[in-house]
Amino acid sequence: MMAEIPSIWREEVWHPLSVHLPIVTLLLASLAAIVSLAVKNKIYHLFLQQMVFAMLAIGVLSGWIAIYTGELAYAIEVRKICDPKVLQEHQWWSYASLIVYSVVFFLEIIRKFIVPRFAKAIKWIGLFLLSAALLGLLYTGHLGASLVYQQGAGTYNPSDDCSEFVK
Amino acid sequence: MCNFEKLKMKKMKKLILGLVLGSTFLLTSCGENKNTDVVESGTYQGVAEGVEPGEKEIYVRTSDDKLVELYFTDETTVMTSDGQTSSFDALKENGKVEITVEKIGNKNVPISVRILE
Q1: How far is B76 from chain A (nearest CA, A)?
Q2: Model confidence, pTM
Q3: Which residue of B has its CA nearest to A82?
Q4: In a 3-state reduction of DSSP, which class is residue A115?
Q5: Architecture in CATH for domain B42-115
Q6: Partner-chain contact B23 A75, CB within 8 Å
Q7: Which residue is closest to B13 within chain A, CA to CA?
């Protein structure tokens, strides 16, 4: 029987579809916060601060969507891959990183809109948390890559003769 | 500092403390963070410490104190103690079970689960 090419819209593929936006935006949020330390020019500094906030807003929101799609993929892939512990570690680090990014986002809202008094303290706490979360984000990405490129999570293995691709 | 500002500061401190405590709680509870073991292929008796119908998953504490995490597949069979075919829904938390598992890679795949009591 000839194999069929599976749909590109199958449930476990929603995760890679949704995960790259938060990776980029959260990474940029952390980098912008770190770079802003070295920038003396007030306009550039303000730009970077606004960038941190905007990237956090997009990253945190899309990040929780990626967590949701990740949970959907988990239920399917945990039964297919050879070492589910890597998947569980990936899941734990993704939650940990995103919770920290979410806390920084809420602190930024407090600093910007509610109590500007604590601006300096919140800024330093935020910078520390953004640096820590960046490490978590990178490690989560590393584990995600290991799942896909070492264990083939979410991927389809074509038949030896590629007959399903013949047109 | 006026009373209103003091009150606001108090609220802020509570909010930040809440955020820290809340996130610590989330961190400890999120994901699959149980310390599980992978056992050799074979048949084991133990207690179903956790039954998760949503994931079709059980945690079994074996008699030699290993915690085995089992994700049911379409081929996994569930039986009653007298050998009758049963379903996942019949599994109860803290119930005694006998599991037959296969070690594949770094995981255990359940072949069959027999409900002992």
Answers
A1: 12
A2: 0.85
A3: B105
A4: coil
A5: Beta Barrel (2.40)
A6: no
A7: A118
pLDDT in tens, B5-34: 676 667 777 777 777 777 776 666 665 667
Q: How far is CA A161 from CA A5, A62, A153, in A?
A: 13, 39, 22
A5 belongs to a structural domain = no
Contact status, residue A106 vs residue B18, Cβ threshold 8 Å: no
A13: number of Cβ within 10 Å: 18
CB contact under 8 A, B71 and A92: no
Please name the residue of chain B whose CA is at the shortest distance from the CA of residue A125.
Answer: B16
Count the domains in chain A: 1
Q: What range does the domain containing A88 cover?
A: 11-165
| pLDDT class of B100 with cuts at 50, 70, 90 | very high
How far off is chain A from B23, nearest CA to CA, in Å? 6
Residue-wise pLDDT for B28-66, tens only, equals: 666 566 789 999 999 999 999 999 998 899 999 999 999
3-state secondary structure chain B: CCHHHHHHHHHHHHHHHHHHHHHHHHHHHCCCCCCCECCCCEEEEEEEEEEECCCCEEEEEECCCCEEEEECCCCCEEECCCCCEECHHHCCCCCEEEEEEEEECCEEEEEEEEECC
CB contact under 8 A, B23 and A99: yes
Give the mean pLDDT of B64-73: 94
